[in-house]
Write a structure and sequence with these properties.
76 residues, alpha+beta, 5-stranded antiparallel β-sheet, 2 helices, 5 strands, 32% strand
Length: 76
């Protein structure tokens, strides 16, 4: 299952999405939310943490971002 968070505050936007390994639901939803909000969002899918930006690009969250933003706590 996948979860989408705000990039700045790590608030949950939506949870329980079908993970990317099964289909594109989580990726498409994250892209849509980032575009609507005109700000990056974070997509966490089975421990894989990615940043989705408003233009639809997706990148792995850097170790520095993980540390600075407290994303280490999301590792399970």
């Amino acid at each position: 299952m996948a979860t989408i968070y705000t990039y700045e505050t790590a608030e949950t936007i939506t949870d329980g999405l079908q993970g990317a390994m099964a289909c594109d639901e989580a990726i498409n939803t994250a892209r849509s939310i980032a575009a609507d909000r005109q700000e990056p969002v974070v997509l966490e899918d089975d421990g894989d943490i990615r940043v989705v930006v408003p233009n639809g690009a997706i990148r792995k969250m850097t170790e520095q971002e993980r540390h600075d933003g407290g994303w280490d706590r999301h590792d399970a």
